[in-house]
Design brief:
Largest sheet: none
Order of helices and strands: HH
Distance between the termini: 140 Å
Helix content: over 70%
Shape: rod-shaped
Strand content: under 5%
Length: 101
């Protein structure tokens, strides 16, 4: 073999190696871009689900707040009624009539 053939062979191998490297870098870049798109899509889906869950939780909290408020009103009405009945049972009307007359 001559020196020219050896140098040509080495140059051909270097070019092949460079081409393989370029192809590998291109594949890596494509995979990275594809993965980035998938991550972005997943992120958007997760954020959307979180927002929907937050809306549902807010609605549920409002409903529970309304129910608790209704129970509290009912409780105070019952306590007021019980106080009136207790006042009457304890002879409170006689005392009121005594002060009126």
């Amino acid at each position: 073999m001559s020196d020219i053939d050896l140098f040509q062979l080495l140059e051909d191998r270097r070019i092949e190696s460079q081409q393989r490297s370029d192809v590998l870098h291109k594949r890596i870049s494509e995979l990275r871009d594809e993965l980035t798109l998938k991550i972005d899509s997943s992120h958007k889906d997760i954020i959307t689900e979180i927002k929907e869950l937050r809306k549902e939780q807010n609605q549920h909290a409002k409903e529970m707040s309304q129910r608790v408020a209704a129970l509290e009103r009912w409780r105070w009405m019952v306590l007021g009624g019980a106080a009136v009945i207790g006042f009457i049972a304890a002879g409170g009307l006689k005392a009121v009539q005594y002060f009126i007359n």
